[in-house]
Amino acid sequence: MDSSLRSTEALKSRIDALQVTLTRRFETLVNLSAVQRNDRTVTAVTEYSMKAETAGLIRAAEDVQTLIRQLQEMWLFGRLNALEGKHEREEVDGTAREVAELGRKLTGAKSLEGEKAVKREGGSVDGDHDGEAIELELEA
C-alpha cells in the first residue's frame, strides 16, 4: 500500500495534485494548438511539445485510475474510513442490521413455504422419503 494513502489529508492532497496536473496538461495542449506561425521549426517544436503534453495527460489519467483502484480496494477491505462521524457509522450499522433482519425474514418465509408444500405432498422436511423422488411445484 502506498504510504501516501494513509490519511485523509494525504488522499485529498493527492486528488488535488492529480486534478491540477490534468487541468494544466489540457490547458497547455489547447494553448499549443493556437500557434499562429507556420514556420517549420515552430511547427516541429509545437508537434514535439504536443506529443510530450499528450503523454503527460495520459499518464496523469492513468494515475487517476490507479488512485481509484486503490480507493476501491481500501473500501472493499475496510481500510477506507468513509464515515467520519460516530453518528453516521451508527446509522449505517443500524441500516445494515435492518437489511439483514429483512433478509432472514424473507429466507425464513420462503423456507416455511417450501416445508408446507413438502408436507402437503406427503413428504418429509428432513429428507426421509424412503428413496422416492418427490416433485413439487411451488406457486410463485
TrEMBL record:
The keyword DNA damage does not apply. InterPro entries: Med22. GO terms for molecular function: transcription coregulator activity. GO terms for biological process: regulation of transcription by RNA polymerase II. Residues 113-140 are annotated as: Disordered. Transmembrane segments: none annotated. GO terms for cellular component: mediator complex. Keywords: Nucleus, Transcription, Transcription regulation. It is found in: Nucleus. Its main location: nucleus. The keyword Transcription regulation applies. Residues 113-132 have a biased composition (Basic and acidic residues). Belongs to the Mediator complex subunit 22 family. This is Uncharacterized protein. It comes from Zymoseptoria brevis.
